[in-house]
């Protein structure tokens, strides 16, 4: 159920432009992805399957020079004792970044509620926000560059769609531009999809110009070998993929951890110290669990003070992170094994709780200590060496009770929120 918070508060807004450049630079650097994921793919079957497709595409040669990225970089406001608060990155989502559609509607909801409460002045401080239009604008540009007015845009979706209304708002923006959208599953692509001699993708006789993945980010999304075959077929095609397999891998937790190592950002921004400084300032502490002295040190550090950290597997979709005493339980089981390399360790961020009301299905309305997470949507289109567009297209604010360590809106823990400017 779509739920929202009644009263909202201030958070700060940051530009995703450099993050988009970084994601694209990683996409281009096959050696970096190989180095970064070398340990992970030996123990994590899902990442290994994705990486195998990545290698096959590199071997065959990419069929499309147009790159479409619709990313969401998530942050929390870290407030340490006696320190200035600062935004710290939780993660970057390079595939199926959600809630751009629904968060385009929440400003009007909160403005209306504030007006009903007699708080007209506050209602005028709600930020305008329309990520759906911006995401669709980038998809439309990629479709235009593809160069066929008859081509359709495919939304690659799950068998059971729990967040369909969020997707529909982006879809409707494309229909406004007279761009034909069809919704398909992996199964549909496998059964009815094919490539012609020019590697154009056809499904049921329709040429596909853009594939927008709203599925394929979790192992359970691939219900059979046919699902993997369908993913490979789309990756081999001339259709613009959002994301392509390399960009998908660029958003993994292991890559995030490797980027935080000294000297790595300089690899991608060799003559831009200011960009390096700005990006690095958003990193929380990130630590490897690879076998060796450095990984051993990480294990010891986590076991000694698990309350300071979050243990993260290579999974998307929310609800996968490990906290507190459970960190010790997991690490005690894998600390002497290569299995530990399937995880990374991250400093736990400490936002200042705010008293507020959460409206959730099946829960009584009561005041709670609340924490918020800010997502910043970035959209970019690149053709060959040219960056055609790279812009911030909106934001997402999710708020939950401080009693919950993990879990998002879809899990019924967090609610959709809006920043209120002061």
From TrEMBL:
Its EC number is 6.3.2.3. Mg(2+) binds at residues 91, 93, 316. Residues 1-19 form the signal peptide. Pathway: Sulfur metabolism; glutathione biosynthesis; glutathione from L-cysteine and L-glutamate: step 2/2. ATP binds at residues 91, 253, 312-321, 323, 346-349, 373, 400, 406. One of its GO terms (molecular function) is ATP binding. It catalyses: gamma-L-glutamyl-(2S)-2-aminobutanoate + glycine + ATP = ophthalmate + ADP + phosphate + H(+); gamma-L-glutamyl-L-cysteine + glycine + ATP = glutathione + ADP + phosphate + H(+). Residues 151-250 form the Glutathione synthase substrate-binding domain. Its cofactor is Mg(2+). Binds 1 Mg(2+) ion per subunit. Pfam families: GSH_synth_ATP (PF03917), GSH_synthase (PF03199). One of its GO terms (cellular component) is cytosol. Substrate binds at residues 72, 95-98, 161-163, 167, 214-217, 398, 409-410. Homodimer. This is Glutathione synthetase. It comes from Oreochromis niloticus (Nile tilapia). The lineage of its organism: Eukaryota, Metazoa, Chordata, Craniata, Vertebrata. The gene is GSS.
